[in-house]
Amino acid sequence: MRHRLLLALLLGAAGCEEAEPGADGPPPDAGAQADAADAAPALDGPCLDEATVRARVLLPACAQAGCHSAAKAEADLDLETPDVAARLRDLTSVHPSCATQPLLVPGDAAASFLVLKTLGLQRGCGDAMPPDGDLRPEQRRCLAEWVTALED
What is the largest CA-CA distance in the chain? Predict the structure, then answer.
């Protein structure tokens, strides 16, 4: 229950929009923000299929970061190759004290260790992911939304 409430709060926060610039014009770093937005994958819209979540979250934040690619699958976790959901459904954490934690529970993001790790809710089972903490709230929402939409 506690995880579900925290998950709902964190995902709800991801839907918040930034305040509009004041009457004085855009903020001083608007150009830098625009450049960063051009480089980042678009995060608007639903994340109901694997292709979308791979493009928005798994590839840029996990596989291309050099940790969970097909060539270098840390913790035996390849998040680059298609059919991620099919591969993760029956897997559990490789962390010795959390070997019963299922990585992916279709339809239940709050029970999926993959989602809990991105939210920092792994409770003594390794580190939060990604290690640099560079996952945007919209990416966390996207991952959880995809897991919730998966059918068992």
Answer: 55
Structure token digits, residue 91: 């897997």
Q: How do residues 49-106 score in pLDDT, each as one tens digit?
A: 999 999 999 999 998 888 898 999 988 899 999 999 999 998 999 988 889 999 999 9
**For residues 119 and 7, is the Cβ–Cβ distance under 8 A?**
yes
Dihedral (Cα; 95, 98, 101, 102), 10-degree rounding: 20
First to last CA, the chain: 21
Residue-wise pLDDT tens digits, 16-61: 333 333 333 333 343 433 343 344 455 677 889 999 999 999 999 9
Q: What is the enclosing helix (H) or strand (E) of 45?
A: none
Phi, psi of 102 (to 5 degrees): -70, 135
Residue 126 is which amino acid? G
Within its chain, how far is the Cα of 84 from the centroid? 13
Whose tokens are 């450049």? That residue is 35
Q: CA 141, CA 40: separation in Å to the nearest integer?
A: 16
* 88 SS3 class: helix
